[in-house]
Design a protein that fits this description.
Oligomer: single chain
Distance between the termini: 8 Å
Low-confidence stretches: none
Radius of gyration: 19 Å
Structural class: alpha/beta
Strand content: 5-15%
Mean pLDDT: 95
Largest sheet: 8 strands, parallel, barrel
Strand order of the largest sheet: 1-2-3-4-7-8-9-10
Amino acid sequence: MRFGLVLPSFSFPDLDYATCARLREFAVRAEELGYEALWVCEHLVTARGLYGTAWLSPLETLAFAAGCTRRIKIATGILIPAIRNPVFLAKEIASLQFLSGGRFELGVGVGWDAQEFEVAGVPIKQRGGRTDEILDIFEKLWTGEEVTHRGRYYSFDRVTIDPPLPQRPPLWVAGGAKIKTELSPDPETIAPTVLDRICRRADGWLARAAGSNRSIIDDWAQIVRRLDEIGRPRSSLAFGHLNFTHVVPTDDEAAALREQRPRIERVMGTHRSFEHLQTCYLLGAPARIRERIAELAAAGLEYLVLSPLDYDPGQLDVWEEEIVRYFRST
């Protein structure tokens, strides 16, 4: 099992400079502990009622993280291309790839927060088509060649961006089933367009955290079947999963949940019940968390990306004792 760390780049209203500076401690310590990559989430606009927080801008946060470290990879988990200008975004990614010494990995998803699309002036119904077209544009622009593009959503003439990339960043595509809520437009099952994007474009699939273990395992089974149908080796697609946790070193399940509840509700909001949150996220005593991870590992999970729920770097040492060493040793 490989592990990645989501930097806690929460932009809570009470965020101050000293708290934000702890991101450096997380980045440096994760590199020391042998984490595969530093990941960042993206929700630019605070989605009241949907989340309890927004996150700092992802590419800027990764540039900061790259400057704090030397070897560890940096990745978006996830970036929402459809709310951005594809040419400028291609330039920003190319710049980050060079500034980080080639350590960047691109994780994308179509997004779901209607307000973000409204602010960007993009109809949310176009999110999938725009995402695919933007990925095509990236492939062209990163060669450093002059590009003229005529697409369904984007058109431009004779555009060149430098520096050209020696190779495109590894591509992670997120998506999958979720537990139904009234406030999100996404279906409960993996959409056919998302399934095709994962199987035809991605180097890795990043299973979403808004479902359950059962839904993640069922999604992976669909992905494997689709890979077989198109003749792509299963080994060519990494199975990853991003989830949120605050590990409490105790065998007392109730005590662990009491400590975790205010943290998970601060990040995720309270429009879902606490029972719902326990189904989606890695909560409970360490034994319960290990059991859930082990179930996913038995189904094929090979890369787990964990996000803390607050700004305490001490969580990394607790994770090491209670979670990471267990799965690295097995």
